[in-house]
Design brief:
The structure is a single chain. This protein is about 30% helix and about 25% strand. It is an alpha/beta fold. The protein folds into two domains: about 270 residues, Purple Acid Phosphatase, chain A, domain 2, CATH 3.60.21; about 130 residues, no CATH class. The protein has a six-stranded mixed beta sheet with strand order 6-5-4-1-13-14. Strands 7-8-9-10-12-11 form a six-stranded mixed beta sheet, covered by helices on one side. Strand 13 and strand 14 form a beta hairpin. Helix 1 packs parallel to helix 2 and helix 7 runs parallel beside helix 8. The protein is globular, with a radius of gyration of 22 Å. The two termini are about 35 Å apart.
Length: about 400
Amino acid sequence: MKVLHTSDWHLGQQFYEHSRHAEHQFFLDWLCNTLTSHQIDVLIVSGDIYHSATPSAMAEQQLYAFIRRAKTDNPNLHIVITAGNHDSANRIETAKPLLSQFDTHVVGRFDKHTPHDVVKTLSTANGTLQVVAMPFLRSADLDAQADDPQAYQRGVARAYQAAYQALDAQFPVLAMGHLHAKGGSISGDSERNITIGGFDAITADVFGERPDYVALGHLHKAQKVAGSEAIRYCGTPLPMSFSERNYRHQTLLVEFTNNALSSVKPLDVPRLKQVILLPERGGATLDELMNLLSELDLSQYQDTATPYLRLRLNASETDSQFRHKIEQALTDKQVHFCGIERVSNAQQATDEPHFEDLGQVEKLEPVSLLELAYRAQIDSEQAVPQALQDCLMQVLASVQEQEA
């Protein structure tokens, strides 16, 4: 039996005000072909199907068109989709009656009173698979107290154990999750930090020993958790920010033989548009940037889509005409220009986030933003008081619950 593990599609994302519809369609077309060529029995999408809790009609249509084509090309295919922290649980749940007609099983939220609802038993031509389709868990789903850092982890563990009670011992189990597992590598500027009750990452122990494979979403970099071949993030299918430009984007082909996990193989996702950052590290003077632009060879992209380009300029640059000069240098360059980032000397030394415009501030994790504001406005020498951090955590938890 073959399962394809994906996550974090972020349909509807705007990349520095540039639409990514064509890139997402390129991925979905590749995915449809992959499902057919590898004869996939089950497709898993572990959260963040959309980039926003209120996706555009175009993004929703893109998802539904994909599901229809995938089922037309692969009549025996099952699809399982769970809500991530970017998704609206209500919106995901509303689509359930429609999508069930296409053997597509969606779970928007976990109800502690009916934990068995997240268990999906899928009968395929190559065997039966039990999927624990656990969506992103909010503190309200678990009765976790915001002032207890360990309450969330205990609640997550209880949720999985409660769901496992509905499992049949004779069939393999795949558990889904959308969370930050402890030790996982997070990208620098595109993932929303999941912080509930002051606890921003949980250990792999919450999954217990019952699952044969754990298919995770949220972290954008493909990686193993706790060194386990059977607990994996597949990562995003395309870079969500410039910090992810060098990621190996992939889906994971998970195979079960004789009701046991037999292999996990990455399938690299082709990239429609390249992501270029100049310079790669630190900032450059205006003259250095002009030289980099003059040497920029875009001929390698002639047969592909127009690449994205972002420039990094030293904050100490004093030439008031820098924008005009850069625009002139870009006149004959076929790129999607994504702006100029001013990089301070302190940032180059510490790699601390710096943003030229307020529109990029949302890419900071809430705690990081609090720390920057505290140092700038209150005390540059002292750490943020724990009481203030706890207050922020309670506000964030409340907001996440209201968005559910």
